[in-house]
Specification:
With 472 residues, the chain is an alpha+beta fold. The protein has 13 helices and 13 strands.
Length: 472
């Protein structure tokens, strides 16, 4: 191929030299020195930007932003875990109301914990067995009985925080603290003597409290050796007494209904993210379509400008409130209400960008060369619009979640039966000054991570997608 090109080059040089000397070759010989050039759009693109790829260059610029890449990693991990969480072993259903296996009371407002272990006891610990009927687990306590209020007991030993006493033929220990308010003599160590409490007291078999606020604890049956009557048991090895017959702890605690807040937060995150992504998708599709027509088709400019003015001048909050009030509360209602006006901002940005770009020299040249409208839009205009579209979509997701939180705050959002970040934050804000403030902290942390991540990633990708930042 090289030799052929060199031969043609030498032939052309000889022909030019002969023509200058007046010795022109026949026309047929001159025609043989030239080969017709065929237009190839792909070759033309490669000739203009050799070794250049818009998307490869965009991702290369984006990956240089370490903060954005770090947040993208965190956000991706959070989104993945949000959908994997229900599939993991030992997870409580989000809407399940968890009751205590024995008392049947709701496990309401249980503080966050990474374990269900309440006490660790050594081998040989004597425990009282409480009937429960739970396979593989035994409910135990060290409460031998109850001493009624204002009942006299005889103290036989003084141990500071504990007194060894006898009560109606039973021998055991009672707690000597502010709660029991025992009536003690001037020298409580001088035993024996009689005392009494103003409140009901538990009579323990040892100087410790192996209960969960009075309720029985649970231990694996295989670790116990039972008495012949089955009323008592002794631990064969070191054992862990648990608040529930399970190792599945309430990592985020429980709410007032006894539901696992860990499961509620991730279920609510899935719901809120679904709303955010749906609103962003609808906003992008409708906004880009109307924006392109608005900016490129001059005859539609006046009509679409008036439509935009109407949509933009109606407060979004009023639309959300009216639609949520009129229609049945639900996810579809919130998505519909948000999409009624959110498309207008995207359409305006697209229209403004197209108006700026449509009459530039390279677009005029493309039209003069016969390029179609679709090719001009996809090759000449859309690369300049990607940054705007990505930024708007990235911001639309946390904005939609924020709107869902606001609508729920005023009582027109999703029903309580559908977990969402809005519902959880609305409940948690009422407990901010109580010991249950964790019910506001955890969903707020997740919402903050989602909002900040989308904002930072959207800005970074918008800058990277701008052709002016990486076209050489």
């Amino acid at each position: 191929m090289v030799k052929l090109r060199e031969a043609k080059s030498r032939g052309l040089e000889d022909a030019l030299e002969n023509s200058l000397l007046g010795d022109m070759p026949p026309p047929s010989d001159i025609d043989g020195l030239f080969t017709p050039a065929i237009l190839n759009a792909a070759d033309a693109e490669r000739a203009g930007y050799s070794e250049y790829s818009y998307w490869r260059s965009t991702f290369r610029v984006f990956l240089r932003n370490r903060a954005a890449v770090s947040l993208l990693t965190v956000l991706a991990a959070l989104l993945l875990f949000t959908f994997l969480q229900p599939l993991l072993p030992g997870q409580y259903p989000a809407t399940l109301i968890i009751n205590h296996p024995i008392t049947k009371l709701q496990m309401a407002n249980v503080s966050p914990s990474l374990t269900t272990v309440k006490k660790a006891v050594p081998a040989g610990t004597r425990l009282v067995v409480v009937p429960s009927g739970i396979e593989g687990w035994t409910a135990v306590t060290n409460v031998a009985g109850a001493i009624q209020r204002r009942e006299a007991v005889t103290a036989t030993e003084y141990h500071g925080a504990w007194l060894r006493v006898t009560y109606k033929g039973m021998d055991g220990y009672i707690a000597n603290n502010f709660t029991t308010k025992l009536k003690l003599p001037e020298d409580p160590a001088a035993v024996p003597y009689e005392t009494q409490s103003n409140f009901q007291m538990n009579l323990y078999t040892s100087m410790d409290d192996y209960t969960n606020n009075g309720a029985a604890l649970f231990v694996e049956t295989s670790l116990l050796e039972f008495s012949p009557d089955g009323k008592f048991a002794v631990t064969k090895d070191a054992a862990k007494l648990r608040t529930m017959p399970s190792a599945n702890a309430f990592w985020f605690g429980t709410n007032i209904l006894g539901q696992d807040l860990w499961a509620l937060v991730w279920s609510g995150t899935r719901t809120s993210l679904f709303i955010g992504f749906m609103v962003a998708l609808v906003e992008a599709v409708i906004g880009i379509l109307i924006g392109v027509l608005w900016g490129y088709v001059r005859g539609l400019d006046r009509v679409l400008t008036e439509v935009y003015n109407v949509a933009d001048n109606i407060p979004t909050t009023i639309v959300l409130i009216l639609v949520s009030y009129i229609m049945r509360p639900g996810v579809a209602t919130l998505v519909f209400a948000m999409c009624l006006t959110e498309w207008a901002g995207m359409a305006r940005f697209i229209r403004n960008q197209i108006v700026i770009l449509r009459d530039r020299d390279y677009n005029l040249a493309s039209r003069c060369l016969g390029s179609g409208t679709w090719r001009i839009i996809t090759r000449n205009l859309l690369p300049y619009l990607v940054s705007v579209v990505m930024l708007r979509m990235a911001m639309a997701i946390p904005s939609a979640i924020g709107s869902e939180v606001f609508i729920t705050y005023i009582g027109l959002g999703l029903p309580v039966s559908i977990p969402s970040l809005g519902n959880l934050i609305n409940v948690g804000r009422r407990l901010v000054s109580t010991s249950q403030s964790y019910q506001l902290v955890f969903p707020t942390i997740v919402l903050s991570i989602v909002t900040i991540s989308f904002y930072m990633i959207g800005n970074a990708f918008a800058d990277a997608a701008d052709p002016k930042n990486h076209v050489a």
